């Protein structure tokens, strides 16, 4: 049975190391990081995709993406995650959500599918024994984060306490954290792109 799941792109940061919001940083093919992440989630099977974005911005030109504008600038990742999960929970009865930080635009859609297939309560991809992104949260755990019942202080601690499953993948994109143009170039070289 196919699980109805949503996708959430965390794209609310200022992108100081990049020189501007990474949501609008471009890949060599001309797509923005935000577009790439949204398309990965959609291709992986997400029925709905939303993104947290800085106040005063919109996801112009990103097909099928719902904008969840953050209430204030400078929110930390865990607070942005809670805001995004609350926005998604209010509008559609998904069973799981795959959360993809916008600075991981090189993830393969098959990784998204594998994370959802791992089942509850949560799943984290691993490449050669090292954790990466995105992560999959099932609804009960996601709602606890959205409601502030689970406060971290970090997502890693919440996932560890919840008993998240490790999902081995052969996707170098899960470890390709593209915080700077140099990191993007290095990741693309490793992928052979």
Structure description:
- The chain is of the alpha/beta class.
- The chain has a single domain, classed as Spore Coat Polysaccharide Biosynthesis Protein SpsA, Chain A.
- It contains six helices and eight strands, in the order E-H-E-E-H-E-H-E-E-E-H-H-E-H.
- It has helices at residues 33-43, 77-89, 109-117, 139-146, 155-162, 181-191, and strands spanning 5-10, 48-53, 65-69, 96-101, 122-127, 130-131, 135-138, 165-168.
- Strands 1, 2, 3, 4, 5, 6, 7 and 8 form an eight-stranded mixed sheet that branches.
- Helix 2 crosses helix 4.
- The longest helix has 13 residues, at 77-89.
- The chain is globular, with a radius of gyration of 15 Å.
- The model has no long low-confidence stretch (mean pLDDT 90).
Keywords:
193 residues, Spore Coat Polysaccharide Biosynthesis Protein SpsA, Chain A, eight-stranded mixed β-sheet, 8 strands
Low-pLDDT segments, ≥5 res: none
Fraction of residues in helix: 25-40%
Rg of Cα set: 15 Å
Instruction: Give the mean pLDDT.
Output: 90
State the CATH superfamily name: Spore Coat Polysaccharide Biosynthesis Protein SpsA, Chain A
Summarize the helix and strand pattern as letters. Answer: EHEEHEHEEEHHEH
Alpha-beta classification? alpha/beta
What general form does the structure show? Answer: globular
Number of helices: 6
């Amino acid at each position: 049975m196919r699980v109805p799941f949503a996708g959430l792109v965390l794209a609310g940061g200022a992108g100081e190391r990049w020189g501007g919001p990474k949501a609008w940083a471009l890949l060599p093919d001309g797509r923005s990081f935000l577009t790439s992440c949204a398309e990965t989630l959609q291709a992986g099977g997400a029925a709905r995709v939303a993104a947290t974005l800085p106040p005063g911005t919109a996801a112009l030109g990103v097909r099928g993406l719902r904008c969840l504008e953050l209430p204030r600038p400078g929110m930390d990742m865990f607070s942005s995650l809670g805001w995004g999960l609350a926005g998604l929970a209010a509008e559609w009865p998904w069973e799981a959500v795959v959360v993809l930080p916008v600075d991981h635009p090189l993830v393969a859609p098959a990784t998204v599918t594998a994370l959802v297939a791992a089942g509850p309560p949560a799943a984290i991809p691993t490449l050669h024994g090292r954790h990466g992104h995105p992560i999959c949260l099932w609804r009960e755990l996601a709602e606890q984060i959205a409601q502030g019942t689970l406060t971290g202080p970090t997502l890693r601690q919440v996932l560890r306490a919840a008993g998240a499953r490790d999902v081995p993948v052969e996707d170098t994109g899960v470890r390709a954290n593209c915080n700077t143009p140099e990191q993007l170039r290095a990741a693309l070289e490793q992928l052979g792109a």
